[in-house]
Write a structure and sequence with these properties.
The protein is of the alpha/beta class. The chain has helices at 43-46, 77-86, 88-98, 132-152, 172-189, 206-216, 221-228, 263-269, 299-309, 312-333, 337-340, 372-383, 408-417, 420-425, 436-448, 479-489, 499-504, and strands at 49-53, 63-68, 106-110, 118-123, 157-161, 196-201, 272-274, 284-286, 345-350, 356-361, 391-396, 426-432, 457-460. Residues 36-217 form the Macro domain.
């Protein structure tokens, strides 16, 4: 580093951390007929990158990033630790000199008593399925603003945590793509300005970063090739910013030349320039063929046309469908054995009409610790083969606690993302051993969010009531559910129902 930082016994020096170019590579076979990657293998960039799990306040670096809220007083463990170790002078500088930081912006203070010389404060976006584009743009702005502060303050090393928080509903892997490729494009442009970029992870985010880092920072020529087929459709522009098609316009440069040259000459003149690079926009401008400035894809016209072609509901449906297709693709290739091992979502037999049955076990679902995005991927993987035709769901609410209840916002998001066939072909949703809380939550959810399945949701106070539609030998019921049912309802002896009995049940 240019100027040494004061050493402390509890600090973590960068010399102790493993650079990305020195991490272990997976075994792969060589592909001689490979495509060209937009993110080629560059050892000089990889040598500047570090992936590390730990306490960011211990890092002996020039700058660390603090993910906070707009008033910079977020009650998050990481933020409180930064303020505590930075001391009252750090808090006073924030209160007196910074005060406000808007979403997508970044502001810098001194580190004071922290090992780091600077603290870069930024505010990440909330994620809403209705406004995915806005969330992606705001998240990119966070990383771009942070890296801008790094250059402005001539920081040679910076530690960046995950700025897309699950607390705000942002899917970890989706955000990691934006984070990593933005850093990649930054290092490509300013390779000599920064010595070290540390992605600081925790147990919830490290797997996603380990998976996605090789796509943008391949460690060998073969890993570069393998990454091509795993890259998302949108790999951003030259800065890593998500591409928004309606921003792309074409206008005429030097219109007088158009009247003096023929079509062939004009073809040679066509070129792409950036209209507002100094403002950080992504507007693409090209030389036109009309004597006057010509806009072939006016953003306003595109928006008006789009709004007139589709209703708001249709636009939301198209966005949800795009998101679902992306999740479906991921669910087919990701290793989700850890989610499967929980036995909270699984297929069992069929009901009396031959319809497949899906089992949900509430007690087995660790809502406070599980990666909710991976749980959604596993749900899609299990359900996708059966939702093309009629099916039913049995949910055992037996002995669940607050630790097993997923957030209502997450349930709404899942409901909006899942393809319409899930709702259309689900013929019944049985809730076994409901509680007063579950009945209230179900009523609220089916009244205000999922009204189209309201009449399909049926609460049952005992397992035996299922036997009217599902034979016992077609049900794989956890033993604790059976024991609890006997405890509250007494032992039951099953007799195969006739048609009349089935209807009675």
């Amino acid at each position: 580093m240019d100027d040494p930082l004061g050493a402390r016994s509890d600090c973590v020096d960068l010399k102790e951390l493993t650079r990305w170019n020195l991490t272990q590579l997976p075994m792969t076979s060589e592909d001689k007929d490979a495509d060209i990657s937009p993110f080629p293998w560059r050892n000089d960039l990889n040598s500047k990158l570090i992936l590390w799990c730990g306490d960011i306040t211990r890092l002996l670096v020039h700058g660390i990033v603090n993910l906070t809220n707009e008033r910079l007083d977020a009650k998050l463990p990481e933020t409180e630790m930064i303020y505590q170790k930075g001391g009252p002078d750090l808090v006073a500088e924030i209160r007196n000199n910074v005060r406000i930081c808007k979403t997508g912006e970044a502001k810098t203070t001194k580190g004071h008593k922290l090992p780091a010389r600077f603290v870069i404060h930024t505010v990440g976006p909330r994620y809403n399925i209705k406004y995915i584009t806005a969330a992606e743009s705001a998240l990119f702005s966070c990383y771009r603003s942070v890296l801008g502060q790094v250059r402005e303050h001539q920081m040679k090393s910076v530690a960046i945590p995950c700025l897309h928080s699950m607390r705000r509903g942002y899917p970890i892997e989706d955000g990691a793509h934006i984070a990593i490729r933005t850093v990649r494009r930054f290092l490509e442009k300013y390779v000599d300005d920064v010595d070290s970029v540390i992605f600081v992870c925790n147990e919830d985010t490290v797997d996603a970063y380990m998976k996605i880092l090789p796509l943008y920072f391949p460690r060998s020529s073969q890993e570069e090739v393998d990454a091509i087929k795993l890259l998302p459709e949108d790999i951003g522009n030259e800065n890593g910013e998500p591409i928004i098609p309606e921003r792309q316009i074409r206008i005429m440069d030097k219109p007088m030349l158009a009247s003096m040259r023929n079509t062939d000459d004009l073809d040679e003149l066509e070129q792409t320039i950036d209209l507002n690079k100094e403002f950080g926009t992504s507007t693409v401008v090209e030389v036109g063929r009309h004597p006057f400035a010509q806009m072939q894809s006016n953003p306003d016209e595109v928006k008006i046309t789009s709004m007139s072609s589709y209703t708001t509901a249709e636009q939301r449906h198209l966005e949800n469908k795009r998101r679902y297709e992306r999740l479906l693709k991921r669910s087919r290739v990701e290793d989700l054995t850890d989610i499967a091992a929980l036995k909270c979502i699984y297929r069992t037999g069929v009901d009396r009409f031959g319809r497949p049955v899906l089992i949900l076990v509430g007690k087995h679902f660790p809502a406070n610790t599980i990666n909710m995005e991976r749980a959604l991927l596993y749900l899609i993987r299990v359900m996708e083969p059966i939702v093309e035709s009629d099916y039913i769901i049995v949910y055992f609410h037996t002995q669940t606690s607050a630790d097993n209840h997923p957030d209502m916002a997450f349930l709404k998001q899942v409901y909006s993302i899942l393809d319409n066939k899930y709702r259309k072909n689900m013929k019944a949703f049985y809730i076994i051993h409901p509680t007063w809380w579950s009945k209230l939550a179900t009523w609220f959810f089916t009244t205000f969010t999922a009204s189209d399945i309201k009449n399909k949701v049926i609460s049952m106070r005992g397992v035996q009531y299922l036997y009217g539609t599902i034979f016992p030998d077609q049900l794989d019921i956890p033993s604790f559910v059976i024991n609890y049912d006997i405890e509250i309802n007494g032992p039951r002896y099953y007799e195969p129902p006739n048609e009349a009995g089935a209807e009675a049940l």
